[in-house]
Amino acid sequence: MSNQSWSREDILRVLNITERQLRSWEKQELIPKLHTYAFGEMVALRTLAKMREGRVPAERIRRSVSSLRSKLKGIKNPLTDLKVFIDGKRIGVQLAGQKMDSISGQLLLDFDAAEIKRLLSFPREKPAADDARVTRTLRAEGEHWFQKGLDLEQEGASGEEIIAAYKKAVELDPASAGALVNLGTIYFNARDWTKAEKYYKLSVEADPAYALAHFNLGNLYDERNDRLKARFHYEESLKLRDNYADAHYNLALLHQSDGHFMKAVFHWKTYLKLDPSSSWSVIARRELEKLRRMTVVEGARSTTRKETTR
After folding, report:
1. Residue 33 and residue 26: Cα distance in Å, rounded?
2. Does residue 67 fall inside a structural domain?
3. What is the pTM (predicted TM-score) of this model?
4. Among 20-24, 92-96, 267-271, whose mean pLDDT is lowest?
């Protein structure tokens, strides 16, 4: 494996992508937010760039990644850990010599021309085929409106326009977890806790393996001072992605304020391993040092008390 690394500027230049596109992939949790990229992340970014060139819808990419994380335990980042390929608009992976659809998990078989002709000669059940065609069409339309919502957010459009786009995506495809979580975030930022909770919960129902939806629910409950639920959803997000730096950060704060100092230390240290150089890491180091000093002082007090009571 190569030890080469690339800066953020290198990535934009080598892959010929914009900062806006990179931020969009980060927001959808397809790649982590980094300042420098190792070989594995470069592989993932090249794969995403190829999908973008092939005009694969953003929601389909996110759904595929989420599905693979759910179906293949131990796979944290399918884009770096698996051999991903594109067949038209379909995203597949190759495992042990077999090709598999990334969303359904069904095996994809390679047929020669004669076999394809033979299969096509079988009578088709038109109602089932028609239903599947309608479903695909609706999902494609939903993906279009989801991408439209992302574009409107990047362009600084009005909240009404953005909400309308995401709601249209959900209307066409109720399983559009990305649109649901983005609607929740819009209402969260507007401090409309009831609607934010509704859409975050719907996002979790649509995609139980969506770590961001759990993380955002944790933020919502934290904001409402429901610490038990906040901790539960932060921990759920880490079960799905144990390298979720922001979840470690927020759990560290929760445990620290609750007096669970050893748990806080664990999450601060884990956060700093994942994000050693951002402005947030400065705060993490400060809090970790504060806990270290508290531990030293408490230890000294304990020793003093034992000596004076002998």
Report:
1. 6
2. yes
3. 0.62
4. 92-96
